[in-house]
Amino acid sequence: MSSDPTTAAEGAAEAAERLDDATVDAVGKITEALETTERARGHLYTFHQLTGSADLALGEGVEALREAGHGELADRIERDLVGRNVISGRWTFQVVEDYDDGYYTVFRDLEREAREALTGGARHLHEARMKQDRRTHGRPGHEMEPGD
Fold it and tell me: For residue 136, what are the CA distances in angstroms to 11, 139, 140, 143?
C-alpha cells in the first residue's frame, strides 16, 4: 500500500469490497484490540511520568520537612520512599520498557501480520465499509476520499 492517504483509503475501500464479512470482522476485532492496547500503553506512560513527577515532588517535600525542623521524619521518608521501586526491582521506566519490548511489540507485529496475510495490509476495512454504508452519496461532506 502507498503512504499517500488518498491511495491508501481507496485501497482499503476496494479491499473491503472484495473480502468476506467474516474476515473483515475478524481482522477488525484484532485491530480494535490493538487500538485498545495502544490506549493502555499511553496510560502506562502516564503512570510512568506521574510517578516520576510525584517522586521529585516528594523529594522537595522531604527537604521542606527538614527545613521546618522535622529531620527525623524527613530522613525516614527519604530512606524508605524517595526513589523506591514501584514493583520488585523496577522503576516505572523499566516497567514501560518491559511492556514495550514484550507484550506490546508481539501484539503490534501479529496484528500487522494478520492484516498483511488477510487484507493485503489494508487497515480499517470495517470502518471503510461502514463509511461506504453510512455516508450520503453525492452530498458535500460525505465524499469517500478527499477531493471527490
Answer: 20, 6, 9, 8
Task: Report how far residue 114's alpha carbon sits from residue 5's, in angstroms, rounded to the nearest whole number.
Answer: 21
103-142 pLDDT tens trace: 999 999 999 999 999 999 999 998 888 888 889 888 898 8
Tell me: the pLDDT tens digits for 70-93?
A: 999 999 999 999 999 999 999 999
- At 47, list the grid cell: 503512570
Average pLDDT, the chain: 90
Q: Rounded distance, CA 143 to CA 73, Å?
A: 66
Q: Taking the model in full, what pTM does it have?
A: 0.78
Task: Give the dihedral sign, CA 111/117/119/120.
Answer: positive
